[in-house]
Amino acid sequence: MMKKHQGRTAIISGAASGIGQASAIRLAKEGAEIIIADREKADKTLQLISDVGGKATAFQCDVTDLRSVEGLKIAVEGIGARCDILINNAGIYPMQTFEQMTFEDWRHVLSVNLDSMFLMTKAFIEGMQRQRWGRIINIASDTVNLVLVGFTHYVASKAGVIGFTRGLATEFGQYGITVNAIAPGMTRTPGTEARKEVPGGMSQEEFFVVYANMQAIKRVQEVSDLVGVVSFLASEDAAFVTAQTIYVDGGLVRV
Fold first, then answer.
1. 177: nearest Cα among 217, 207, 137, 149
2. Half-sphere exposure (CA, 13 Å, Cβ side) for 86?
3. Burial class (CB in 10 A: 0-12, 13-18, 19+), 208
4. Mean pLDDT for the stretch of residues 128-144
5. Band of residue 209 on the pLDDT scale cut at 50, 70, 90
6. H helices within 7-115, ranges in order?
7. Quick one: pLDDT at residue 201?
8. What 8-state DSSP symbol labels residue 111?
9. CB count, 10 Å around CB of 114?
10. Does the annotation mark 175 as catalytic?
């Protein structure tokens, strides 16, 4: 039996760990060839994909840098691959009050969380146009509807992701390309577990519990809660779904 994503290639930024890693494993299980673009080495993700019988290649790439992304495109073409599914997942979420924030701090968050999506999409959407098929999935955040103190730059960047998603979807729908955003809640990842600063001076584990208790589903969100939606949006089943932001946060945001 043919697997759901058989014959497709997915390029995923920030897939060395966390949501990107989980998405890569899920799509690989379902037949997609995976290409990882991350500043960090992705050896663990490569091994986990191999363990489920999948195929993957990793390239170290700074997705905020034009030359690095151009080099990634050349490298992908060099191995004879294309981009059918693009998951713009790379992101950071430092905590700083607006008073503490410098312009450099602001620009760094906007660069990683939003500029990277522009650069990666610019690099690979032309190939999708030629083949008249493509899936672009951008990782946003439910914090655009639940603004927390200390994350003004982060929230601004993720609101930009939603606008970027809608704009792209409008321009490229005629080519059979869908563009959607997923807005997770507070998800347990190596990055979130390692945070030392959280709102209210709580420990990270305490903050997970507080966040979970505000949700309709009162448990901490795991990366496994997101990958089914990623798989759906990457599939033929989602051919008529575009320009949408899907909140996968246990019902924290009810819109």
1. 137
2. 29
3. buried
4. 98
5. very high
6. 18-29, 43-51, 66-78, 103-110
7. 75
8. I
9. 21
10. no
Pairwise CA distance, residues 28 & 16, whole Å: 14
Superfamily of domain 9-189+223-248: NAD(P)-binding Rossmann-like Domain (3.40.50.720)
What are 94-112's pLDDT values in tens digits?
A: 999 999 999 999 999 999 9
| Neighbouring-strand partners of residue 168 | none
Q: Is the dihedral of CA 119, 120, 125, 127 positive or negative?
A: positive
Give the C-alpha separation, 99 to 170, whole Å: 37
Please state the domain extents for the chain: 9-189+223-248
Answer for the pair 49, 25: CB distance below 8 angstroms, yes or no: yes
d(CA 133, CA 127): 9
Mean model confidence pLDDT for the chain: 96
- 24-47 pLDDT, tens digit each: 999 999 999 999 999 999 999 999
Which pTM was predicted? Answer: 0.96
Catalytic residue among 154, 175, 211, 247: 154
